[in-house]
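Late entry, 1,1-dimethyl-prolinium complex.
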Amino acid sequence: DATSEYAEEMDHTIVGIDPGAGIMAAAEQALEDYDNLDDWTLQSSSETAMIAEMEEAIENEEPIVITGWDPHWKFVEHDLKYLDDPEMSFGEPEDIDTLVREGLQEDHPEAYEILDNFEWTADDMSEIMHDIVIEEQDPLDAGQAWVDENEDLVNSWTEGVDEVDGETFEIVHGPWETDYSTVSVMVHVLEDMGYDVQTTNVEANYMYTAVADGDADAMLGAWLPDTHGDYYDPIEDDVENLGANMEAEAALGLVVPEYMDIDSIEDL
Ligand code: PBE
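Prediction complete; structure with ligand written out below:
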């Protein structure tokens, strides 16, 4: 039948991203939760490699199942759908939180206040991702353009905050477009306030230990409570959580092209 045909053609493989990403743990959970996925494996690669593989499959109208999430530009560029997840392996939509190191408020009160005020939406982030990925703009240029076009929102983060004189500020982030787009905005916001901002791209678990150990000042992409729960829970008391910068719009799941005639993970 149609479903088993897909399964063969897809080599019983879910195409994933970097092994440290929280969505990979959720996908491993799905392999356990769904009996029909008993013989399946999760292939790790990177966001870029996964998307390339997906685009090739779409070009040939072949079946493919990927680890997918929102916010992400792929849903704008391609006709895709989340598969229903009756076992809830991928959880509910979550927040994206801002985490800072202990002592930041004392050492850099101005940056602390800006990060505490920082709040935006999935649409905001998607605009930048689109410019970076589809328009092929340099991330920092895309971030600058967004800051220029969203003066009122940016002012609401910086209002009443004093400028500083070249203090160094270190942001650590993960290897995904969500993080690149967020950081490319905050770099400009903080530099306009006088900071010298350094950014480091690391694996997911190291974002958390870096902020907990005080090696980095902040991270802006904490997907909580579930996606990064395994990384966050052990260091929760060693960081300060400034709350959501994006509320309840971050979602995960298994994603397939619309032309595939299935609707649920149970149909794979
Ligand atoms: N993501 C994007 C990441 C967080 C941001 C969903 C790919 C993950 O850890 O799975």
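The chain has a mean pLDDT of 96. Will revisit in the morning.
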